[in-house]
């Protein structure tokens, strides 16, 4: 009987403490959700991604105006692959890059170019990026591989000092 009473008291304490923990966790989550909307968090995962640059959270380097066209920045080979009036801002904002190697290349290379000017220690120079883009435009496989390399550099860039 005493054992049953002791177990019953411990179970009530455990239940009360569990309820308190759940309540505090829910309150913290509600507080965080009220101050940081999920959409903004999802759009700007890192300060070097295409999503970050397309959000306009930071001004673009003067050497790369948002309304510059892809063909003006990356050359005549890019003119052959993309709309003649496709801007860098539109390229960074694209969401059709899954399964589209060239869309992925233009999206990631735009962010890479911006990072080369704005982020100290970024592994590619602007000249390197432009050259690599022109070389990658020869095939879907080359475009996909170079887009992946730029994506990795853009994601790793968050560890650099700005």
Please describe what this structure looks like.
- By secondary structure, this protein is mostly helical.
- The chain is globular, with a radius of gyration of 24 Å.
- α7 (101-118) packs antiparallel against α8, α7 (101-118) runs parallel beside α9 (140-156) and α8 (126-136) packs antiparallel against α9.
- The chain contains nine helices and no strands.
- The chain has two domains: 2-35; 41-159, no CATH class.
Keywords summarizing the entry:
single chain, 162 residues, mainly alpha, 2 domains, 9 helices, 67% helix
Rg, rounded, reads 24 Å
**DSSP strand (E) fraction?**
under 5%
* Mean pLDDT reading: 80
Give the overall silhouette: globular
**How many distinct helices?**
9
The biggest beta sheet is recorded as: none
Structural class: mainly alpha
- Distance from N terminus to C terminus (CA atoms, Å) equals 68 Å
Number of strands: 0
Total discrete domains? 2
Uncertain stretches: 28-44
Task: Indicate the topology.
Blueprint: H1 2-35, H2 38-43, H3 50-54, H4 70-74, H5 76-81, H6 88-93, H7 101-118, H8 126-136, H9 140-156
Helix pairs in contact: 7-8, 7-9, 8-9
């Amino acid at each position: 009987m005493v054992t049953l009473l002791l177990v019953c008291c411990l179970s009530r304490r455990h239940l009360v403490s569990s309820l308190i923990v759940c309540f505090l966790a829910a309150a913290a989550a509600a507080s965080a959700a009220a101050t940081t909307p999920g959409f903004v968090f999802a759009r700007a995962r890192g300060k070097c991604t295409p999503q970050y640059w397309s959000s306009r959270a930071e001004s673009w380097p003067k050497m790369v105006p948002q309304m510059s066209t892809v063909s003006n920045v990356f050359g005549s080979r890019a003119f052959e692959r993309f709309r003649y009036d496709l801007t860098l801002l539109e390229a960074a904002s694209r969401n059709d890059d899954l399964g589209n190697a060239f869309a992925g290349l233009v999206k990631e290379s735009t962010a890479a170019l911006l990072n080369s000017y704005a982020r100290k220690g970024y592994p590619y120079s602007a000249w390197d990026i432009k050259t690599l883009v022109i070389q990658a435009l020869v095939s879907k496989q080359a475009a996909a591989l170079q887009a992946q390399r730029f994506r990795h550099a853009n994601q790793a860039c968050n560890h650099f000092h700005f």
